[in-house]
Structures are given as C-alpha cells and as structure tokens.
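Subject: complex prediction, re-run

Hi both,

The earlier run crashed halfway through, so I resubmitted it with identical inputs.
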Amino acid sequence: MKPRDLVPFLATAWLALPAAAHEVTSEVARDRAVAVRALAHDGAALSDAVAEVFSPSSDGTPFWQGRTDRSGWVAFVPDAPGRWRVRVVDAAGHGIVTDVDVPAPGAADARQAPSPGPSAVAALARPLAGVALVAAIFGFLYLRGRKTGR
Amino acid sequence: MHVPDGFLSPQITLPAWAAAAPLWTWAARRNFGTSSTESLPVVGSLTALAFVVQGLMIPVPGGTSAHLTGVAILAILYNPGVAFVCESLVLLLQALFFGGGGFTVLAVNALAMGLLGPGAAWLTWRALRRLSERTAAFAGAYVGIQVATFSVALVLGLQHRLSPAYMPVPFAVTAVAMLVPSLTVLGVVEGLYTVATLALLRRARLLGAR
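This time it finished cleanly. Structure:
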C-alpha cells in the first residue's frame, strides 16, 4: 500500500473527531443530592420561586441558581463539605434563607432531622398561642394601669 | 407581606431601626400610659385579632397567597401611633416565637405595615368620615393596605438595586406580584374586615372604642 492510499482513511478519521468531542455521557448518582423544600407556614409550597444555593466558600456568587419545582423543592449536589446556604424567594417577597450542613466524605453522616411539616395541630396552635401571648401582655398592662391609677 | 430575615442588607435595616426606635418610644408613651388603661381590653383584643388574621392565608391571583394586616381598625378607632405599637408587637411575637418575618427586618416591616399603612388609612378615614362612616372605614382600610404593600415592594426593589445578592427579584416583578393581589382581593377583604369590626364594636358599645 502506498502512503497516498491512506489519505482517504486519515481524512475520514479526522472528520469524525469533532463528533467524538460532542459526545455527552450521563451519570446517575443516588444519595448525593441535598433537597430543601420551601413551605409557607400554612403548608403551601413555594413553587416556581427564585432559588439560589451558596457553597461554604462562596464570595456571594451562587453555586447554583434556578427555581423551585412545583412542590417547592430545591435540589443540588454539593461538591464540598461544610455549611451550605439555600435562599428561596417568590415574586411577592415570601421566602426563606436556610443553612444545610454537608458532612465530609467518610465522616459520620450527621444528617439534619427534617423539620416537621405544618400539621393541623400546629396550624391551630399558632393563632391560639399568639392570642394567649397578646392577652398576657395586655392583661399585664391593664392590671398595672389599674393598680397605679388608684 | 412581611419581608423575611436575610432579604434586606444592613444598609436598609439599620436606618429603619434608627427611624423606628424613637417612634416606638414616642407612640408607646403617648398611647399606653395610665390614662389609656380603660381602652386596653379593646386594643388588646384587636391586636390579638390582627395576629390571627395575619396568619390566615388568602389565595390570590397568580397562585400565591397573601394575608390581611387587620390594624387599620386601630388607626381609625384611636390613631396611627396605637396601630404602630400594636402591629410592631404582633411582628415581634411572630419573629420571636413563630418564625415569621424576622428580627433584623422588624423595623422595616413595622414601618410599612404598622405606620405607613395605618397612617394612610387614618388620613383617608378622616377625609371621608363626614360622608359615611362605613365608606370611610372601607376606603381607609383599602388605601392603607395598598400603601403598606407598595412600601414593602419599594423596599425590596431598593434592595435589589443596592445588592441583588440579598433580593434577586427586581422591583418591576415584585411590585406587580404584590400589588395585583392587593388591589384586587386583599384591599377589599381588609375593607370588609374593618367595616365589620367597626360595626361590631359600635353595636356592642365596647368601652374604649371611640
């Protein structure tokens, strides 16, 4: 075979290189993501709200930006241990800023206990407790006023 | 309507605290001295009611929810200073015990929802009360909640201009998202709440309700 006979083969191989460079592969990893859910105090999910995730070494630039899903979840895969910050805010200004501790690889997994979701009891207890506190404060002011007014 | 903790920078919260602190002192001394003891049961009841209605979320257009403030009635019955102190107390309790709003943003929320809103309600009430008490109360509450809502939107918009890291949503989006529900639903419900409460207090001839 003469060297010039190799030219068509080499040309074909060279043209195929860009196709290989555009190849995309995928990886499925379970138990690596951190998920945070944003809920209003009445249990309604903050869906489609602006969400930002800041790494422990963040200089103010978000590690990830996006929107909560329709159930109010934000999920991200941390690439370093430490205290990560998640900020969620909807257009009307409702939102949360919460910290998530991510353990170092191999360290004991000190997972944060999931905060209890709003329950019917909590929904009822909140206004009752608030009314009791306000009544206690005004009751004290009233009794003090009556006493000093005599 | 509350601004949550972490969404406003010290550039806004510190001046707000500096403005609110002397106003709290002045309003508390003027309205909660020994001479006002007889009105405390009614003021306390309306404050407790304000706490409850601020926890009731009303579905509004756009898929979100909003709540009343319930303090325009205090400005109308007494004066904006009473509303300011009582709303501040509600916000303080929410921040300390119930995870609502927040302590750093307390002054901003109190100035918007407790002073500017009720102040506008009181001015509207005074301007219209000769025509009809009910109309004046309704209009006062309606205008009051619009002013409070716009003030909160304005502060959030200002924060976006100062530093989007604190508030990533721009004013144009925030203003529309907050004012459309407020103009269409919240204002009307706040007006009806105020008229109904006023009528109830008048009918019961409760002590302290002027």
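The first helix of chain A runs from residue 7 to 21.

- K.
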